Amino acid sequence: MDMPKTKSLERIEEKMEELDPASLRYHILESAKSFKTSWVSLGRALYSVYKDKLYKEWGYSTIEIYILKEIGIKKPTAMKLLRSYYFLEKEEPQYLQKEYTENTNAAVVPSYESIDLLRKAKNNKALDEHDYEKIKKNVFEVGKDPQLIKRDLTTLMRQRKEVDPQEEQERSRTITVKRYLSTLRAMKREIEISKLLPPSLLKETESLIEKLEAEVS
Question: Exposure check for the chain: N or C terminus, fewer CB within 10 A?
Answer without folding.
Answer: C
